[in-house]
Amino acid sequence: MTEARPTAPATGKLGVLTVGLGAVASTFIAGVELARRGLAQPYGSLTQLGRIRLGKRTDGRNPLIREFVPLAGLEDLVFGAWDPIPDNAYDSCLKCGVLDKHEHIFPIGDFLKSIMPMPAVFEQHYVKRLVGTNVKAGKTKRELAEALRQDIRDFKAKNGCDRLVMVWCASTEIFIVPGPAHETVASLEAAMDANDPTIAPSMLYAYAALMEGVPFANGAPNLSCDVPAMEKLASEKGVAIGGKDFKTGQTMLKTVLGPMFKARMLGIAGWYSTNILGNRDGEVLDDPESFKTKEESKLGVLEYILQPDVYPELYKQMYHKVRINYYPPRGDNKEGWDNIDIFGWLGYPMQIKVDFLCRDSILAAPLVLDLALFFDLAQRARMAGIQEWLSFYFKSPQAAPGLYPEHDLFIQLTKMKNTLRFIMGEDQITHLGVEYYEYGKDQ
Ligand SMILES: NC(=O)c1ccc[n+]([C@@H]2O[C@H](COP(=O)([O-])OP(=O)(O)OC[C@H]3O[C@@H](n4cnc5c(N)ncnc54)[C@H](O)[C@@H]3O)[C@@H](O)[C@H]2O)c1
Questions:
Q1: What is the mean pLDDT of residues 354-379?
Q2: Is the shortest distance between the CB of 248 and ligand 1 below 6 Å?
Q3: Which ligand 1 atom is nearest residue 395's CA?
């Protein structure tokens, strides 16, 4: 046992501010309310259902994670959101068509109608396929960020919140390359004053959150807080940050299958991934500039896992392609196909086909909940800066400068559980296990 990190208790209300009140955010909010009323189960959420082993395998200690670490309870959550589309959470749930209206929307209609989106900081230049009417006006980007800061303070006071956390659940913006404006806090602020086009709205939300001491988790592949200036600001202000891009469907599978091939030294000639998707996210990603941001996030995963430079004979020639096709009839029910051409002993080829008929927002909603609760935990445990231990939830995990991120889902899970043990002063679990055998006892 080591010493537990001093961690403030999770008392009082936790305000969860989502940027965006579309399919993912409204499904998340509705799901929490349904769970607290006992009308549905929060499946898919590790904070609600997951357990953690403590000590030796023979000790029989296996508490629920939410009983092991001090997490905010579902009953303590209050919700706020920004969206350029003025629909409240009820209308958003109905329009997004994720949830069954009789079973999961009408019974909590009054609650959902009470969640109205605050006017957003939005510019169509960054999300070409959206038209927004519920939008803030301001002469400079700095002014807009200040307006978001005011929203944060007002929300906190009005709802009597003890703490807040912000999760980006809004659209994927156009691809932006990190540049000089993103280097230091001073250059970032100067760029905001000068309305520099490399400062996207997502950065203004991240900046506002950090200035208000609110942890920020980024569920889309936008740069947002993944630039040196934001990292510096986060450590200056002592705030937790992390991202990017929820790891839900096809990429989650990739980060399970990829490590399997590598573990068995099976080569890969090609990996072709395609998707059909008919929700608003699919429509936004139909724009090549937004798709480019998503593509980068989806493609990077295999490079890191397979290490083609270390295993050139197995992976150097691999052809990796990812497509997303907007196909309205399917709505939120994405179908993702993977065709993987592998080769084994003596070079003989084999194929694997995966057809994942998933529900995008059903997969993403529990991640929003877990991220909100864990970012709040990190903040109370005074773990400022990048939360690499939460890379489990992200396609393109943010890591310390110069460090490559871990993508393998089960390494990420081990890392996360060990971090929880670290926070609580419990022994790390290395899975060595020689102590159970005679040969381990003579050391
Ligand atoms: N499985 C998943 O669903 C999944 C996985 C990974 C990432 N994501 C990402 O999560 C995000 C949300 O997905 P979704 O299906 O809910 O999309 P959605 O289109 O239903 O909702 C996004 C909402 O964000 C709003 N928005 C856009 N720009 C905004 C701004 N500047 N400020 C405030 N709101 C803004 C839009 O109006 C829209 O209502 C997308 O970026 C998506 O790529 C989703």
A1: 97
A2: yes
A3: 6
pLDDT top residue among 315 and 292: 315
- Per the CB < 8 A criterion, the answer to whether 398 and 386 are in contact is yes
> Of 406, 424, 404, which Cα lies nearest the Cα of 414?
406
Nearest CA to ligand 1 atom 5: 246
Nearest to 17 by CA among 169, 131, 137: 169
Ligand 1 atom 18, closest CA: 22
- What pTM was computed for the model? 0.96
Residue 287 confidence class, pLDDT cut points 50, 70, 90 = confident
pLDDT digits (tens, 9 = 90+) for 74-92: 999 999 999 999 999 999 9
DSSP string, 292-353: HHHHHHHHHHHHHHH-TTTSHHHHTT-EEEEEEEE-GGGTT--EEEEEEEEE-GGG-EEEEE
Number of Cβ atoms within 10 Å of the Cβ of 67: 10
Instruction: Tell me which amino acid residue 161 is.
Output: C
Instruction: Evaluate: CB of 394 within 6 angstroms of ligand 1.
Output: no
User: Which of 21, 123, 171, when mutated, tests ligand 1's pocket best, judged by the most ligand atoms within 8 Å of its CB?
Assistant: 171
What's the rounded Cα separation, in Å, for the pair 293 and 413?
A: 26
Ligand 1 pocket check for 199: Cβ under 6 Å: no
CB-ligand 1 contact for 203 (6 Å cutoff): no
Between helices 185-193 and 201-211, what is the axis angle to 10°?
A: 120
The position carrying tokens 């490399």 is 198
From 17, 19, 21, 24, the mutation candidate for ligand 1 (largest count of ligand atoms within 8 A of CB) is 24
Indicate the burial class of 322 (C-beta count within 10 angstroms; 0-12, 13-18, 19 or more).
buried
CA 130 to ligand 1: nearest atom: 37
For 344-381, b where at least 16 C-beta lie within 10 A, e where not — what string?
eeeeeeeeeeeeeebbbbbbbbbbbbbbbbbbbbbbbb
| Cα 55 to Cα 410: distance, rounded to the nearest angstrom | 19
Under DSSP, the state recorded for 242 is E
